[in-house]
Amino acid sequence: MSATEHGWLGKLSWESLVFSNFLESPSINEAVASAAGSLVILASIAILGLLTWYRLWGPLWRDWLTSTDHKKIGIMYIVFAIVMLVRGLLEGMVMRAQQAAAPDGFLHADHFAQLFSTHGTIMVFFVAVPFLVGLINFAMPLQIGARDVAFPVLNQISLAVTVSSGILLMVSLVVGQFSTGGWSAYPPYTGGDFSPGVGPDYWIWAIVFSGAGTTLTGINFTVTVYKCRGPGMHLFRMPLFCWTVLCASILMIFAMPPLSVAALMLGLDRYLDFHFFTNDLGGNMMNYANLFWLFGHPEVYLLVLPAYGIFSEVFSTYSAKTLYGYKSLVIATMCIAILSFTVWLHHFFTMGQSPTINIAFGIATMLIAVPTGVKVYDWMATMYRGRIRFTTPMVYAIGFLILFVIGGLSGVILANPTVDFQVHNTLFLVAHFHNVLIPGVLFGILAGYNYWFPKAFGFRLNDKLGRLSAYLWFAGFMLTFFPLYVAGLLGMPRRSFTYADLTFKPYMIVAFIGAMVVLAALITLVVQFLVSIRDRHKTRVPVGDPWDGRSLEWASPAPVPAYNFVELPTVTDRDEFSEAKEHGRAYQRPKNYRDIELPKNNPLGFILCVTSGILMFALVWYIWWLALISALAILIAVIASTFRKETEYIIPASQLEKDTEAWLALVEKSEAVSRDLEDSPRNVGYSKLEL
């Protein structure tokens, strides 16, 4: 049946609901699928009920859903990423349970294939990217002394299409089935002949829309760094985090379009019977592999570079030292960004290109390890003779150093095409990939979450529970993925839902135990958050500098006001706030209070979130009339938004003076605490200067 031969509801029917299969043929496999769908429905009802019971719809709409404040948008990105992280980890745990129970197991092959497809898609596109974008949104404008990002409404729109794409993935748990073609969606597995269902369509539209949001975000961040820096904030006075953001943003601009183009071409193959990636009529599947990995390897560094920036901030702050080798770290960051576009072919060394090409890309893959090594040595030199405080972010950073080096070394091994040919399709590669991304990205975003949380909400997270969660992450990660190196070398293929060789079973059992420890780490993270909320009156840091910070984000109250700075700071040094504290320039009254102009709230982002979600769902299920209506609604909403005349509001100088004087009075009466007391109730965000 062609794309035009469907009724009013397209492909939708009773059989599309996940519960229908369980009712018709009950089994453990169908029970797992139905439980996941039920959990999505019940969680949605519970959230809607709580918002209604506590009458939070008004504040939610007024203060969050329509906000153009970069800090609130960043927080919403992070909340969304944490929700998706829960799903991604639970799916990983189910896969580990299936492999531990093999050769019997409890999942069907197709269900397992859906799990590893959604797990990879979610963890890369809907956990790592939005979590990092959220942290960047919150911290980067503050660090460069800016009022906001360059395009506040565009920032809102980027969040909207990312969230709507994530919601589409959640809907796939309830209606229909997801793709079985992996997170990379290689044809012919995702072509119309092999997968006539809606699974690949869910993947295509989620990737296209979220990719558009990420590309727009890259443009926004790049312009912000280039054009919105405060007075005196030269490029080489920026904190290293801002340099990594700039390079990662450029990667977003140039690396995301190849993925979007590949996904759209795959969609044309499926919807309109084009032949871009078929074996007949001029199609070439290798074109897809090249396009996908032309995005895919820069994507790794798109994720890792901002995490490097977070670790740089953490090492410097909690070692109480200026970051060692700043210029070499900047140069290394730029080298990584450039070299990331020269290594994509190592992802298909085994696909038949010439040995000469393999050698060239193997050498490039080895070279990219050099600037990363420079960073590792600079970070260790920063800690050398520093007064190290083993706070939660520092624990994550040190764990990253140890584990990431192991993952990097396994990557250098795989850069040899002859070695890669032997282990490419085994669990060794899975272990390497996770050994890079979990310490390199996940530990980085968790370090950043603990580091900047008090700045966002005005109170500190519980450090003991934070460290416990970090140790559980380390232990769970090693138990889950280190056995996969051995199983891979023994020959166990990746993506295997079962196996006949029981040599693999002990390693799979250990990996499952590790997955349970990872689940415990996630639960501890949630408990840490809840306990911190309960004890927030004891851990408030309203002055705004709980860690003896070095950069400008710590120079304002906590939580940060909408305008960021009552007067844009003039920057004279790389560690501007640290220098200001040392020379008595911190916490100064402005000479003159002036009105500040900020963008008004805008409903456009929320409208586009809803309408783009409906459009994607309609396209997935071939409901053409609904797709047309939602597309028109998007067009009308965008055009109508251009007719808004009053787009900004004024915060009067009198209000600024009142707020600032109250904050400065709090500073004057607060006790400056030493680093030894930063985890005590005496720490109200006023750190004692200790050189």
UniProtKB/TrEMBL annotation:
<dbReference type="GO" id="GO:0004129">
    <property type="term" value="F:cytochrome-c oxidase activity"/>
</dbReference>
<feature type="transmembrane region" description="Helical">
    <location>
        <begin position="202"/>
        <end position="228"/>
    </location>
</feature>
<dbReference type="GO" id="GO:0009060">
    <property type="term" value="P:aerobic respiration"/>
</dbReference>
<dbReference type="Pfam" id="PF00115">
    <property type="entry name" value="COX1"/>
</dbReference>
<feature type="transmembrane region" description="Helical">
    <location>
        <begin position="470"/>
        <end position="487"/>
    </location>
</feature>
<feature type="transmembrane region" description="Helical">
    <location>
        <begin position="357"/>
        <end position="374"/>
    </location>
</feature>
<dbReference type="GO" id="GO:0020037">
    <property type="term" value="F:heme binding"/>
</dbReference>
<keyword id="KW-0408">Iron</keyword>
<dbReference type="GO" id="GO:0009486">
    <property type="term" value="F:cytochrome bo3 ubiquinol oxidase activity"/>
</dbReference>
<feature type="transmembrane region" description="Helical">
    <location>
        <begin position="75"/>
        <end position="95"/>
    </location>
</feature>
<dbReference type="InterPro" id="IPR000883">
    <property type="entry name" value="Cyt_C_Oxase_1"/>
</dbReference>
<feature type="transmembrane region" description="Helical">
    <location>
        <begin position="288"/>
        <end position="311"/>
    </location>
</feature>
<keyword id="KW-0249">Electron transport</keyword>
<keyword id="KW-0472">Membrane</keyword>
<feature type="transmembrane region" description="Helical">
    <location>
        <begin position="601"/>
        <end position="618"/>
    </location>
</feature>
<feature type="transmembrane region" description="Helical">
    <location>
        <begin position="395"/>
        <end position="415"/>
    </location>
</feature>
<feature type="transmembrane region" description="Helical">
    <location>
        <begin position="427"/>
        <end position="449"/>
    </location>
</feature>
<feature type="transmembrane region" description="Helical">
    <location>
        <begin position="157"/>
        <end position="178"/>
    </location>
</feature>
<feature type="transmembrane region" description="Helical">
    <location>
        <begin position="31"/>
        <end position="54"/>
    </location>
</feature>
<dbReference type="InterPro" id="IPR023616">
    <property type="entry name" value="Cyt_c_oxase-like_su1_dom"/>
</dbReference>
<keyword id="KW-0349">Heme</keyword>
<dbReference type="GO" id="GO:0046872">
    <property type="term" value="F:metal ion binding"/>
</dbReference>
<keyword id="KW-1003">Cell membrane</keyword>
<dbReference type="GO" id="GO:0015990">
    <property type="term" value="P:electron transport coupled proton transport"/>
</dbReference>
<keyword id="KW-0679">Respiratory chain</keyword>
<keyword id="KW-0479">Metal-binding</keyword>
<dbReference type="GO" id="GO:0022904">
    <property type="term" value="P:respiratory electron transport chain"/>
</dbReference>
<dbReference type="InterPro" id="IPR023615">
    <property type="entry name" value="Cyt_c_Oxase_su1_BS"/>
</dbReference>
<feature type="transmembrane region" description="Helical">
    <location>
        <begin position="240"/>
        <end position="268"/>
    </location>
</feature>
<keyword id="KW-0186">Copper</keyword>
<feature type="transmembrane region" description="Helical">
    <location>
        <begin position="624"/>
        <end position="643"/>
    </location>
</feature>
<feature type="transmembrane region" description="Helical">
    <location>
        <begin position="115"/>
        <end position="136"/>
    </location>
</feature>
<feature type="domain" description="Cytochrome oxidase subunit I profile">
    <location>
        <begin position="55"/>
        <end position="572"/>
    </location>
</feature>
<dbReference type="InterPro" id="IPR036927">
    <property type="entry name" value="Cyt_c_oxase-like_su1_sf"/>
</dbReference>
<feature type="transmembrane region" description="Helical">
    <location>
        <begin position="323"/>
        <end position="345"/>
    </location>
</feature>
<keyword id="KW-1133">Transmembrane helix</keyword>
<feature type="transmembrane region" description="Helical">
    <location>
        <begin position="507"/>
        <end position="531"/>
    </location>
</feature>
<protein>
    <submittedName>
        <fullName>Cbb3-type cytochrome c oxidase subunit I</fullName>
    </submittedName>
</protein>
<dbReference type="GO" id="GO:0005886">
    <property type="term" value="C:plasma membrane"/>
</dbReference>
<comment type="similarity">
    <text>Belongs to the heme-copper respiratory oxidase family.</text>
</comment>
<keyword id="KW-0813">Transport</keyword>
<keyword id="KW-0812">Transmembrane</keyword>
